[in-house]
Amino acid sequence: MINMILGRKIGMTQVWDEDDNVVPVTVIQAGPCTVSQVKTEATDGYNAVQIGFGDIKAKHVNKPMAGHFAKAGVEPVRYLREVRVGCGEEHKVGDVVTVADFENVAKVDVIGTSKGKGFQGRIKRWNQHRGPMSHGSHIQRHPGSIGQCAYPARVLKGVKMAGHMGNARVTVKNLSVVRIDAEQNLMLVKGAVPGGKNGLVAIRMA
Questions:
Q1: What residues contact residue 109 under an 8 Å CB cut-off, 6+ apart?
Q2: Which residue, among 192, 198, 37, 6, has the nearest Cα to 99 in the 3D structure?
Q3: Half-sphere CA count of 191, side-chain side, radius 13 A
Q4: 167, 161, 125: which is closest to 143 by C-alpha?
Q5: Cα angle value 182/79/206 (rounded, 5°)
Q6: Of 106, 112, 128, 174, which is most buried, counting CB atoms within 10 Å of its CB?
Q7: pLDDT, mean over the chain
Q8: Residues 97, 2: contact at Cβ < 8 Å?
Q9: 118 has pLDDT over 90
């Protein structure tokens, strides 16, 4: 089976469970995702399917992708992702992955792009300590020493320094699926879903 579905992060809300406890959840519009290509061991050397999500106007699709969708006989979509499967022969082009396939799934992994935070210092970026704030101290938020004395006479690779933070691929594992709304293609997940509102996310069965 296909263990992944693409979706869009809508926002947050709260629901009540069976014990009347308030549960904060993130609402994700998940699917439907149409299979636009099937790869098998015989043709490509591995088993995978290509799924698509998101509406797009035909005039915004370039010619190579328009030919790809026309060959498959499916409607053009905005996003395409490849998902590994156990046996490619079990799937065919045109199959649809819906949120109803996750009805009995308790935990999921959510993959998305985190919010960009621009250029940040070492304290915010790497959660490092600051210097003393007393009078006369000049290293409140400065990086301090970044190397040794005479040997090796260079800065080692991988030293945590200031730089670009966020806007990176993030996978948050084992989030709880609180509710599935198959009619509206909604999935309610408890936990930290990466990215901002309207961001693309991939939900994978944990």
A1: 171, 172, 173, 174, 175, 203, 204, 205, 206
A2: 6
A3: 19
A4: 161
A5: 55
A6: 112
A7: 94
A8: yes
A9: yes
